[in-house]
Queue: 2 jobs
Job 1
Amino acid sequence: MVFGGSRGIGAAIATRLARDGFDLALTYVSQPDRAAEVVEAINGLGRSAIAIKADNADACAITGAVAHAGDRLGMLGVVVVNAGLAGPRLGWIRAVQHDRQRETDGKPDQNVKSPEI
């Protein structure tokens, strides 16, 4: 299972795991078309894949995604947590100004808490 497997590094990880013989579930948040492209590529390699909409900042969504993946694909053998946020808008590490805190609400949950779920 690859959390954040619909784009960039996550898509490359998912595709590589498929080449190595894994069936996969991957999560996405906002671009189902990109997730569908990765699923199609994995299916083209002769492996099974599903895309599940799940926000890593939402514990219920993540536990639901894991349960759904298990129901569809069987026991999970590998889990990759690739989902996260970064960049200039992610100021929670260095934020000291009150107005910047509003801009970063939710990011610590996704980047720090979701791997623990």
Job 2
Amino acid sequence: MLNLRSLSISLMNLLIYMYLLSRSAYYIVGIPFGLYLAFNLDMKLLGLWIGLTVALVYCAIVGVWLCVRTDWGDEVRKVQARVERERRIGKRLASELQQAEERVECL
């Protein structure tokens, strides 16, 4: 059975990468390039649109590169190890809780 906490940790890492990728695409690449085209090369609104298009293309290329570069087998092993570690912790806590309940019943 899949542990939701392990899944949420992996999902949060993915969301963080997506956030950083989109921010870098727009604020570091797209907007400065669009402003350069719009004002320095006098392309006006068309320059801004080209800058945003470049940001989208950058985001798509880097996103595909990250997906291709990722060792998905390794990621699965990490999640499986995390799930097994949390399962052992859960069993130990359940055992300790049962022992505590037995001690309370004896009183």
